[in-house]
């Protein structure tokens, strides 16, 4: 398909005209909202006094739990998250009171005057303590095949240990924002920066105690989401709605950056305990892993995230006997939430690191061990949860990338470099991605659309997906353009709105274009079938000699014609006018549900994924083992997106996801103090990649000639999978540290591999060498 | 002038009379000022602390030969009166509309073509940084492009298309509609700048002074000893934007052109306190390479374009990046008051955690660095969690002179290891007179490791700091042997 089509907002982005919620023009009646949150990780609220705050000039409302007209809850899956804490706070950053005022000064002054008396309680601030106190969130999950203990016993070599992976702050450029506008009676309109407007609608209805048909939620665009606005965008929306309801004025809340970082959940950090058995060649025989995630203070999406971590514990490798246990632990931190990859990265990190360990132990190249353990094409091709791996692209991609990246030649050069340099070391790694596409909560795999054609021949497409930069609207526009055979400039994709397309699923799990694309197609199919009737009767009138059949009517290049009699032709615009006159409906909803997916959570077996997206990358780094600083010299990426709907957008997704992954595995570090305060709560200390952190030589390619069957325009999902390509950077760093000890000593290693990890791990190896 | 400032925006002189707009304070940031207009909402706030660049704007001022000089700045850290007498260029000014047709500026067009925006929130800031490159460089190297973009965080794209857009846009010449209107703008700016009467803005609770000469500045300093001094305000503004501190009195030195000279005196180079970090960086490439090296990784271009050397020494921060190098170069600070002046060594100037020896009627007017002879070496190092756009975790500057193979002079200054920039005097003592060889350096490293008791904080644990500090000495040693 055409790769000439740019993001449908590209021009308004570069001119600054794109409207985000914080830019919406409002009357002087607009009030600003502020959230007053807990300063303690765990405490009883003994008293709240808002009287003084209410008296501040310019303040219109101060709301605490007891003022909530509806239900005081905003948990997406389980109702375990109060909208405003009432008797107890369970993390620093938990909302307690809301203020609406005419300006920022009044908000600040009122905030200072709200008196909250706490009685502090013991807080659980890490997974280890939570495990020790048995503070489990929900019963553990298990996926199992064969007899792992026996297989471990019979394995020639085994490793046992644990790996910690830290969380990650989303750092969307646009912090959480919402604008609520009260309407007539109970009606309320909410402009939300939310990946899940349907759930935003539900939660607003619930806290206000009104029915869903009174609430309209609209999402024009988000300034980034990455999962951080899948459930937690609902919170600000609910707070803004409460304030708007109380003041009968429009209220906007735009979180201050530090507040956003302090209040919202992050990628789940994990503590994974493993045992792995393998043979002389490096073939994995048995793998037992227990993934412990830090859920934070509430349920949110933690169990679904844990599930995806477990479903990706195998990464791309066949393991005969395997046991995967997942446990989510409650702590006194903000409830952790969706983040690109949705647990997948945490599950994969463990085994990718283990492959590296096996290679070092056997004195082989880790690339070789990976290849040896890939899922096979015709045997050894069932996952631990029993899904068959069809159209396996691992081998094709491995061969292509090893060649194009000149892996072997560079490996020799690196060895030479390391021999010649005492403290500056280089390392390289290749890592694969096989990522399951679909919501693992099977019923979410449905989507809706509404396509309207107006009498001037222009088309308005609405669908249930939200735009957060990923180019979903652009792809939907392209789908409509291809299906209706008209040029893209006649089509517009509008803001996502719950009044237009109801009961939608979140834009998540990389499934946005898969399911919404099919729903749009369904709608255009319906309209086309109506139009075809009109076309045929017109053709009969105009060209009585050639009888046209329905199946021969083609929509292309703004015209409609009969492929047997191409001269029988009528313009799209004309047929639209005719159809209207003939009283034919020019609007249709569309619907889609992904076929054939199911997963039995109790048994840990099923077909949770419609298909897999593949990717592979090779990265080379250089570390200074005296200072811990590192440089990313080169990354080669090959990614499978099926037939790309839009190459420009897809490459953008691959590069962006990869760099976000690089941040997770290197410089992004979440740290808390002993009382549960986040110490890295601003970009001053929380370091996402800058332009200088991308590979000095960055080569990204999409796998060619790789149509996917059964998906919209034979494409594949692309949002999340490339995130995990960043493991090549993580393990290249480890390879470089390992070079300090000439690859004879297994380095201490965690994720992220910060400068601190690099330096202290190198230093430890140096000290060990001295002892030797 | 009372209560009024003037600058050029949207091609016209804009006069802001603070007495007429009670919602405007002299400490209102340029970001918030712009965002209060429907036609200037393109500029975004992503952090309000100078780290993300979503608020990037470009300022043009009259430079040599009456040419405009274009600089990118983070508008979230700039108080409105600081742009008095300058042209303020925002993302909305780049494209032009003629006969109802909008034509994009080349940098915008190329950003569209390279798919350089995804969510678009960082994009207005990125566009302004690209525009900054466009106006300042022809065929810029990748290093120049990357350097100009380190202050613009983008969480979506992975930056590759943005670099490509810059490479493609800045090939031939820097002509655009701004070049065409340059003369007119210069005339407007001249008109504004012809009035050099101190600007005083007063409201119920705030006083803001913006003098244009040293003598006026010193007089105001004397009369308002409690006023907060700002130069680039990159340190001070944070206290407002992040901590909601209220400034009752401000003395803004950014208009004092006498503080913006670099003079070559007999044995020294004299930097006016108002010289920006970017100017120092460019000036020191050959003369003070260790200073240049550390300034290459100082903040971002947006920060360096406005942050001053006077502000950096004035903040006396233990992680101020110029300090260890200024120690190593034996720099001096000149302080002036209305009726006295004194020059003191930088080491004596820093007296405590964020405390400098400045009396309440004095201003820093000069930073003086003696010219370096060729007999010694000075080198500097900065270690931070992220290579660029990050504050030092540990920084250091070392000076070494050998006589024969033995150390005749050594100075080891560290930042980030104590409450102040501090020399490792025990280690220096140990090394002096000794042979400059690896064995002695390794012995010295053991002393060095014990000489400091650094903190653990958000940037790193103490163990990292101690280890890195001692390793830097080894790194310095190895590099002296290489050359
Ligand atoms: C995002 C960001 C990144 C940064 N990165 C770095 C970095 O990498 N390295 C680094 O060292 N710093 C960094 N800084 C800190 C800051 O930019 C520097 O310290 C800068 O040099 C301060 O200069 P200024 O002119 O902006 O100072 P101002 O904020 O105007 O003033 C700083 C202090 O000096 C005093 N002062 C200023 N001028 C005078 C004078 N003439 N006489 C007496 N007192 C005076 C002020 O009263 C104030 O206390 C960073 C800041 C930000 C916001
Ligand atoms: S808002 Fe982030 S740098 Fe100004
Ligand atoms: S495009 Fe989203 S942050 Fe840059």
CATH class of the largest domain in chain B: Alpha Beta
In CATH terms, what is the architecture of the domain at 394-435 and 609-772 in chain A? 2-Layer Sandwich
**Strand order, largest beta sheet of chain A:** 3-5-1-12-9-10-11-20
Strand order of the largest sheet of chain B: 2-1-5-3-4
Low-confidence stretches of chain A: none
What fraction strand of chain B? 15-25%
Please give the share of residues in helix of chain A: 25-40%
Mean pLDDT of chain B: 96
Mean residue pLDDT of chain A: 96
**Could you say how many structural domains of chain B there are in total?**
3
CATH topology of the domain at 394-435 and 609-772 in chain A: Aldehyde Oxidoreductase, domain 4
Description:
- The complex is a heterodimer of chains A (772) and B (483).
- Among the domains of chain A are: 394-435 and 609-772, Aldehyde oxidase/xanthine dehydrogenase, molybdopterin binding domain (Aldehyde Oxidoreductase, domain 4, 2-Layer Sandwich), CATH 3.30.365.10; 446-593, Aldehyde Oxidoreductase, domain 4 (2-Layer Sandwich).
- Helices cover 30% and strands 24% of the residues of chain A.
- In chain A, strands 3-5-1-12-9-10-11-20 form an eight-stranded mixed beta sheet, sandwiched between helices. In chain A, strands 7-15-14-13-8 form a five-stranded mixed beta sheet.
- The termini of chain A are far apart.
- The relative contact order of chain A is 0.12.
- The model of chain A has no long low-confidence stretch (mean pLDDT 96).
- Chain B starts with a strand and ends with a helix.
- Chain B has 18 helices and 22 strands.
- In chain B, α3 packs across α4 (142-149), α3 packs parallel to α5 (160-169) and α16 (425-431) packs antiparallel against α17.
- Helices cover 33% and strands 24% of the residues of chain B.
- Chain B has three domains: 4-93 and 180-252, Roll (Ubiquitin-like (UB roll)), CATH 3.10.20; 106-175, DNA polymerase, domain 1, CATH 1.10.150; 260-482, CO dehydrogenase flavoprotein, C-terminal domain (Enolase-like, domain 1), CATH 3.30.390.
- At the A-B interface, α1, α17 and α19 of A face α2, α3, α5 and α18 of B.
